[in-house]
Structure to design on (380 residues):
């Protein structure tokens, strides 16, 4: 027997938490990044689902055409929301930790969404997922378990993406995967086992709050101009993260060539755009194989998850090439380029300061070689 009061209270909590997430993260949503768009979409899905769930329980067994239509519409939305939440959650995880998923993986996710959607459309005519009988009473049908399976598959998929990235050496950047996935698992199990309770959507809104709190903490370690990590992040990571200290890394120090000339000739706004462009290109090249840190001014540090010098040189070559392509495409009167110095990053034998001094000196040597080939003299 359904306890409507308990359902209303649980869903009301979900609605209130969703509204809090929307209000407190309004600034983030205005940024229009991929991650903020995913977060906004997911929050709205959960908000509507909490409202729809209460309505579905309210009209269950109620006489009349409205109750029948409302019962079909709300329950269809809830099942469809269950199909949407998984891909959105995976997209958020992979976007935040810069994990690239394969084309086959993407097609698999899309296939699951398409199948889930088509079966729900079919269910409007032939009840195979849920049924609203002649008395407008809801009941589960055989393919109800398909949607439970889909949610479990997506839940497992998210965990696998996280673990694979972690194993590859990616420093998982402030994303609380346990806090995100555990409430979902608990809510899913409870609502599956105990018929007539409301736990999935309120638990998911709790997950969203955990994600937002974690992302808020991350802002302390972000450079506001370039959205790269800042120097505090590097210091914090190396001092407190034991597993990070054990990794085999290469540190690269980069300094933009001719940055002062860009500021002098085109203005500081253009200089800021150039900094953002370099940071974005570095993030695209590095992907999930390292991280980008704005160290100071026009200096960036890239930490790569390798000590293979041949691989490091490939990354350096790719960075130079992408900067050339970007500059040619942009055609703003200057060419973006960087001087690079690199060295093994071994905190068991050296301090961060020692390593930064080494790569800075090597970067300076590379910069001297760059200007030796240039017809223009650099003015500090």
């Amino acid at each position: 027997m359904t306890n409507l009061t308990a359902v209303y209270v649980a869903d009301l909590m979900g609605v209130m938490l969703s509204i809090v997430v929307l209000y407190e993260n309004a600034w983030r949503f205005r940024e229009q990044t991929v991650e903020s768009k995913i977060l906004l979409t997911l929050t709205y899905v959960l908000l509507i689902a909490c409202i729809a769930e209460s309505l579905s329980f309210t009209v269950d067994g109620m006489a009349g055409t409205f109750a029948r239509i409302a019962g079909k519409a709300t329950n269809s939305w809830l099942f469809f929301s269950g199909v949407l939440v998984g891909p959105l959650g995976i997209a958020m995880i992979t976007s935040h930790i810069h994990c690239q998923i394969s084309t086959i993986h993407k097609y698999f996710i899309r296939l699951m969404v398409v199948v889930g959607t088509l079966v729900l459309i079919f269910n409007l005519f032939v009840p195979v997922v849920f049924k609203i009988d002649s008395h407008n009473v809801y009941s589960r049908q055989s393919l109800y378990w398909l949607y439970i399976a889909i949610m479990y598959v997506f839940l497992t998929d998210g965990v696998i993406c996280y673990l694979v990235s972690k194993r590859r050496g990616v420093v998982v950047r402030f994303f609380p995967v346990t806090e995100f996935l555990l409430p979902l698992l608990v809510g899913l199990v409870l609502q599956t086992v105990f018929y007539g309770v409301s736990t999935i959507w309120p638990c998911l809104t709790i997950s969203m709050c955990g994600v937002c709190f974690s992302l808020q903490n991350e802002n302390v370690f972000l450079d506001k101009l370039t959205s790269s990590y800042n120097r505090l992040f590097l210091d914090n990571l190396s001092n407190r993260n034991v597993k990070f200290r054990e990794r085999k890394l290469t540190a690269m120090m980069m300094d933009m060539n001719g940055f002062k000339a860009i500021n002098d000739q085109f203005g500081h706004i253009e200089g800021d755009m150039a900094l953002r462009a370099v940071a974005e290109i570095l993030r695209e090249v590095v992907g999930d194989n390292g991280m980008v840190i704005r160290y100071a001014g026009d200096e960036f540090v890239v930490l790569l998850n390798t000590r293979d010098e041949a691989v490091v040189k490939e990354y350096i070559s790719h960075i130079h090439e992408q900067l050339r392509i970007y500059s040619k495409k942009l055609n703003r009167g200057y060419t973006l380029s960087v001087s690079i110095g690199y060295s093994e990053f071994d905190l068991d034998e050296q301090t961060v300061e020692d390593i930064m001094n080494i790569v800075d000196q090597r970067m300076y040597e590379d910069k001297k070689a760059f200007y030796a080939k240039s017809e223009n003299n650099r003015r500090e």
